[in-house]
Design brief:
Blueprint (H helix, E strand, L loop, with lengths): L1 H20 L4 H22 L5 H13 L3 H25 L16 H12 L20 H14 L11 H17 L7 E5 L2 H20 L5 E5 L5 H9 L2 E5 L10 H7 L4 E7 L11 H11 L3 E5 L3 H4 L19 E6 L12 E5 L34 H17 L1
Parallel strand pairs: 2-3, 2-4, 4-5, 5-6
Antiparallel strand pairs: 1-7, 6-7
Bound molecules: pyridoxal-5'-phosphate (PLP).
Length: 407
């Protein structure tokens, strides 16, 4: 039945094509076919790149404009001015102290080094001790500093890359991850790792989604949609991992993600929607319930960036301020980044990335059995699955090491 329906159409097509090519020799047909296929493929490659056609067009126009001498002179003079101001600012900030640019002939003593550090720390004139730079210094308290430095004194030589040598450090990481997952209402299969900061947490998540979307849905040209108020770490991830980043506007009154704009930006290549709780530039919270509903409707994962205030907002309800839900309690939220080194009051260089399920980071875990670098056979940082306790992870890592030693 279907056959006879399509048949007349196909017959017409056949007669048309044969008619067009009846006076061509076979070599001409072969050449014509090859050339048009190659042209089609390269046109496709030219149009569909990580960077949009518009943005590439703008850059090319700018590059060409710079070739016009008058414009080039104007741009160069502006750039020189900026460089000069920048240099002056740096010199002022360092209060005219010269830079040390080579290793000293004679090593400095303990006291000399401490003196030097004290001297450097005096540069700058922001009143950060009094809490005037909330986005840079989160909490200044001498008891806390004493605790942090005591811990560091004890543990500074450890290397979390080697959980077999430092199982206690591995346990610390597992506990931080599990406590954070519980705070953010992660289910029994939630999992995660610690990273060196919010940017790394976001990079890890974006790479995980890129690899997940590739292995699960065969998406080759991934795109992430996020409000303009999102942290630049996502743009960095886009550059590093070849993901197109689409910025959508925020509503001009509340500075929350414009959900309709996000909806319009969705394409078949969208691998992730992002919301911040709160964002860095304004401190406003996106409506995660709305973003997650969009994610559920289109089957797109949702990342909540709680890097800045995650460890504050999660306690708001207990403090008597009811907030709309924004964590794993909202169905559709698949990952959360929260910085221990911000309102978690840990020293700089630590953050947590959480996933609702291990299947998201799995395609991204580095575990190549064929590498010459034997130690890389163990995932370089294992992530911790829900109820599976640390000892099991350790056993897994331990077994890998055992195999390694055996081979
Ligand atoms: C701080 C921050 C990040 C990550 O920045 P790091 O300096 O790398 O920790 C990401 N998102 C938001 C909203 C942040 O405030």
């Amino acid at each position: 039945m279907t056959n006879s329906l399509f048949k007349p159409g196909f017959e017409h097509f056949k007669i048309f094509v044969n008619g067009c090519l009846c006076d061509k020799e076979p070599w001409q047909i072969v050449t014509l076919t090859t050339t048009s296929v190659l042209a089609g493929v390269s046109l496709w490659g030219f149009i569909f790149q990580e960077e949009s056609l518009l943005s590439r067009g703008k850059k090319t126009a700018f590059r060409l404009a710079r070739k016009i001498p008058a414009i080039a002179r104007r741009i160069d003079s502006e750039l020189d001015k900026i460089n000069e101001t920048f240099e002056k600012e740096v010199i002022n900030r360092n209060q005219g102290n010269p830079y040390i640019t080579t290793l000293p002939d004679k090593g400095k003593s303990h006291t000399e080094i401490i003196e030097l550090v004290k001297q450097y720390l005096k540069f700058g004139d922001y009143k950060w001790e009094e809490g005037y730079v909330s986005g840079a210094v989160y909490y200044f308290n001498t008891d806390l500093i004493k605790l942090l430095t005591d811990v560091y004194t004890l543990a500074s030589y450890t290397n979390p890359l080697h959980p077999d040598i430092f199982p206690g450090v591995c346990k610390m990481e597992a506990e931080v991850v599990r406590m954070t997952a519980n705070l953010f209402h992660g289910g029994p299969s939630s999992c995660g790792t610690m990273t060196t900061g919010g940017t790394e947490s976001i990079l890890m998540a974006c790479k995980a989604y890129r690899d997940y979307a590739r292995s699960e849905w065969g998406i080759k040209h991934p795109e992430i949609i996020l409000p303009t108020t999102s942290h630049p770490a996502f743009d960095k991830a886009g550059l590093y991992f070849g993901i197109r980043i689409t910025h959508t506007p925020v509503d001009p009154v509340h500075y929350k993600a414009d959900i309709n704009a996000m909806r319009r930006a969705i394409s078949r290549n969208t691998i992730l929607l992002v919301g911040s709780t709160p964002n860095f530039p304004y401190g406003t919270m996106d409506d995660i319930e709305e973003i997650a509903a969009l994610g559920r409707q289109y089957n797109i994962p949702v990342h909540v960036d709680a890097c800045l205030g995650g460890f504050l907002v999660i306690f708001m309800e207990q403090a008597g301020y009811k907030l709309p839900p924004f964590d794993f309690s909202v169905p559709g939220v698949t990952s959360i980044s929260a910085d221990t080194h911000k309102y978690g009051f840990a020293p700089k260089g630590s953050s947590v990335i959480l996933y609702s399920e291990p299947k998201i980071p799995t395609p991204s875990v580095l575990c190549d059995n064929g590498l010459a670098w034997r130690s890389l056979r163990v995932p370089d940082r294992q992530w911790f699955e829900g109820r599976r306790d640390t000892s099991q992870n350790l056993k897994f890592v331990g077994q890998s090491f055992e195999n390694l030693v055996k081979n």
